[in-house]
Amino acid sequence: MRNTWLSPRSAIWEYWTSLIACLFWIQYSCGMPHVIRIGGIFEQTDGPVSLVSAEELAFKFAVNNINRNRTLLPNTTLTYDIQRINIYDSFEASRKACDQLSLGVVAIFGPSHSSSSNAVQSICNALEVPHIQVRWKHHPMDNKDTFYANLYPDYSSLSYAILDLVQFLKWKTATVVYDDSTGLIRLQELIMAPSRYNIRLKIRQLPLDTQDTRPLLKEMKRSREFRIIFDCSHHMAAQILKQAQTMGMMTEYYHYIFTTLDLMAIDLEPYRFCGVNMTGFRILNVDNPQVASIVEKWSMERQIPPKPDSGLLEGIMTTDAALTYDAVHIVSVSYQHAPQMTVNSLQCHRHKPWRFGGRFMSFIKESHWDGLTGRLSFNKTTGLRTDFDLDIVSLKEDGLEKVGKWSASGGLNITEVPKRKGMNITDSLANRSLVVTSILEEPYVMLKKSDKALVGNDRFEGFCIDLLKELANILGFTYEIRLVPDGKYGSQDDKGQWNGMIRELIEHRADLAMAPLTITYTREKFIDFSKPFLNMGISILYRKPNSTSNGFFSFLNPMTPDIWVYILLAYLGVSCVLFVIARFSPYEWYDAHPCNPGSDVVENNFTLLNSFWFGVGSLMQQGSELMPKALSTRIIGGIWWFFTLIIISSYTANLAAFLTVERMDSPVDSADDIAKQTKIEYGVVRDGATMAFFKKSKVSTFEKMWAFMSSRPRTSLVKSIEDGIQRVLKSDYALITESTTIDYITRRNCNLTQVGGLIDSKGYGIGTPLGSPYRDKITIAILSMLEDGLLHILKEKWWSGNSCLDEERHETGPMGIQNLGGIFIVLASGLVVSVFVAIAEFIYKLRKTAEREQVFVQRHGGRDQTVVHLREAGETQASASSHGEDGCSDQHARLQRPTTPRKGQHELQHWDDPCVSMTMCSPQGKNLVSNISGTVPEPRDNGIDGITRYTVNHSDIGTLTKHGQLKMAASATQV
Asked: Can you give the residue ranges of the Ionotropic glutamate receptor C-terminal domain (predicted)?
């Protein structure tokens, strides 16, 4: 068991240890004075009534708060000595500082003005007393102010914060307006930005002796400077905002950045709904609940009536007041951590420093404190506040809101909260009144025809007017339409100056440009465009050429004359080749007398005439009785049939279109055609997007066209579309303009037409000034209308015009004689030619027959005789498939009637049918005369076509069949 009693030695040791600890505590308690004093030197303004500065009030407020809470200095009472001086009296400031040092202050606060502050700083350096500042002061690099601490953010870091914000906003140009020369030092990092970043800065200075900034604002407005950085106090900023509103510079096109940290102290209520962009910085950490409660308590204690026309909010804790409050607390915290420090009276004339001053200054620079302005820490060498956070605040419709944060370590971080759920794009345009510039052009913007006098927006109608009404209904804004004074769309001259609607937007005389305004690269650099509401291209407007009649021989139109010649040559070539190949091939020859084994006579069907007939029959898709037998000739025939199939099919397919559609004979069909000639003059609308297209184009064809137009601007360039239409109708002129406009014109004027296709592809957009917040909202509304089909409905409403289309449909009616008359002429010509050929053949044959045939009439016993002609089967219309009753195949004799019967001569006829041909067959290939009774001399050739003539007694004729076969004959006599 452990002994709980202490030994005598242990008890004695514990006793002495406790005694020593008590003695040290007593010494420490006695070393810390019960009362310490701090001094404050503050400027006062000249006037009948001296006003207490916010820094002085915050100084007292902080001391009272420390003494009331007893958290920082539980056993010490903090007192203060306040001295007031004139703002520029540095001698008085030095005297007041010496008076306070004689009272034994541990630190001096203020004054703020540079000359007075430097005087006090010199005394504090000499007597080694900390000097605390809460306003910006230029601190040179070689500064040896050891006893110096400044709670205002370091100017170099603040300049970086402004530069980061400018880069985040993607400003390429900006204007810096400073109040005094110190502003150039505070903003040196931003001013040096052009050499390191792609930013163009313009530096201006506010008037020194007056608060009237209207001349400066007017100059900036005339120079179209919309992004401005003001480096001035919040008092001056309030005056600038009031005067800018009277100058019409508090619109959504302007963006102001104020470097003052007291933007929340300005009355911004008149500017909440102006749409102006206003951004600033704030170091007061009002998001902290403890800070907010202290600020609210401060405001309640300062319930004073507001000053009229000051533009400031009374009772708001400014940055200087908050920094003074934090300065008092950081000194108190440092004093708490500096034990055994005595304070004694110091005399300026003795130059005897405070022996604890250096130690106390080190405690101040090493201290850390989370105050009203955030984290407090100092550079141990310079005494400047470097590690701090800045809130980025922006003016919204609900007031000043925090949208981001900047810190020296993390840089800029924009944390703007998205709009709350339920808000839509109409919020920022609701109840806004916009100025809309436009130009008269059908069917986009037109003057409404009415018997009554119309005023305002009711004077206009058209596609763009209806589109503007729909946008106003969706976005909730009102508008006023103003026609552009010079009546031009907008182009840039050689000096870079714009005219027309583009100039109206650049100079902010209009908020929107609602017209058929083409989106181009050059315009996009000076204004903003919405998404295109109508797509189109450039084309050519020209007079509709006279229609070309098809004519009687229009059936030849489906193919060019060259093709017809090629077809004819192909026909002749194939026919000749077929004839030659048929002669060479042994399989195209056949035996002329197959019934006579000893005959060596062969024949060929493909004579020259038959070859041509075969080609014609195939070409006409009718065929012929001639068929090739050899493989070579069949190949020729098959290829020819394939050729004719394609030709006839193509011809048939095109024939309908050429006979039913009326064709136009236009002298130009494209931009290349119009560029290659000079007879037809052409041009564009002056100062329009089409003119800029040709002027900037690097395509050789378009360069040539622009050279032609620019060489004669008086005749080639027209003032408006209407002037161009009249020129096209009255002269040989072609207008080059947008395809949508041409479509509208050609639907209503049947004498005009579009020539060729589109030269390029572009779009019409709604123009807004550069950086306008309306562009995105209008774009979203246009896309919504496009998806709903509303834009298509509006286009059909204003473009519909069917008069010319109905006329074109009426012209394509039934075909008449003018379309197909030529084929009747060909038919009649063929008939006439065939009659004349038949007559010629008859006469020719008649003469030949008269020479060959001689008919004799011989009488034997008073009996009549008939001449019988024996011919080869190949010459007597025989066919291989015709066989008589006796089996006679290829060779037979035909009983031919005399050409001209004479007296006493009778024709051999069938007694049942006189028209039936009568044939004498030679059965089994025997000689004909063997079937005839009686003695008949042997046949002999008399030299005339191999014909042997016989006479047959009429009385001896036996039975004749219906096939005309002679079955029996009594006798035959050779003639």
From this structure: 433-801
